[in-house]
Design brief:
With 219 residues, the chain is mainly alpha-helical. 76% of the residues lie in helices and 0% in strands. It has helices at residues 10-61, 67-165, 198-207, 212-217. 1% of the residues are buried. The model has no long low-confidence stretch (mean pLDDT 89).
Length: 219
């Protein structure tokens, strides 16, 4: 017995159906281009044959050739003109025929649409949690960073406390621990900060990039 065929997910089916969409578009683009080229060739041939038929008609009027010779050339020209009408009609019909083919694929898409939405929403929910986890990790990291910075920063406050004890300072205005204030964006000095704007999130999410100013700050 052969292997049982694994059932495709709606997303996988959607992938294949949209490949079909591209194939249909490409097929009709090639056919449309070919029809336009055929029509162009026929137009050029008709122009040349019209000159030739006029010359043959002049020869017929002057009794230099028999009627049959002129009629033969005229029939050939008329047939070519009919072919041009068909070629131009073919090109004009192309869009409607393409829509018919695309609509068939669209109907197949409609059949799996509900399953696809469920899979898409599940995927978004998973990544929403991952994104929020990244935010929680970032905020937790901020506190860890503060503790490590305070290990050196705390002596600023201790020095001020000593000055108060010695009467050199009326009051200690220095915090005993490092604060996040110095890391916020300073628009006056054009210093980037830890603030994350909607624009930055959108840019990172859609294009995978962040501002050159921020990249410079981490060099």
């Amino acid at each position: 017995m052969g292997k049982a065929k694994v059932k495709q997910t709606a997303v996988q089916q959607m992938e294949e159906l949209f490949k079909k969409v591209e194939e249909v578009k490409e097929k009709f683009e090639v056919a449309s281009q070919k029809a336009l080229e055929e029509a162009e060739v026929l137009k050029q041939e008709i122009q040349e044959e019209e000159k030739e038929v006029r010359e043959i008609y002049t020869m017929y009027v002057l009794d230099e050739i028999v009627l049959e010779t002129y009629q033969e050339a005229k029939d050939k020209l008329d047939n070519k003109k009919k072919l041009l009408v068909v070629a131009e009609g073919k090109s004009a019909d192309m869009k409607d025929l393409e829509k018919e083919e695309l609509y068939k694929v669209y109907q197949q898409i409609q059949e799996i649409k509900e399953d696809y939405y469920k899979e898409d929403n599940r995927n978004i929910a998973v990544h929403r949690k991952r994104i929020f986890q990244a935010k929680v990790d970032y905020l937790n990291f901020m506190h860890e960073a503060q503790k490590e910075m305070t290990a050196t920063y705390k002596f600023n406050s201790k020095i001020a406390d000593l000055k108060v004890d010695l009467g050199l300072l009326a009051y200690n205005h220095t915090d005993g621990f490092a604060t996040a204030k110095r890391f916020f964006e300073d628009t006056y000095s054009r210093t980037p900060g830890i603030d994350v704007t909607r624009e930055e999130v959108t840019q990172a999410f859609n294009r995978g990039t962040c501002s050159t100013m921020m990249l410079e700050a981490i060099k």
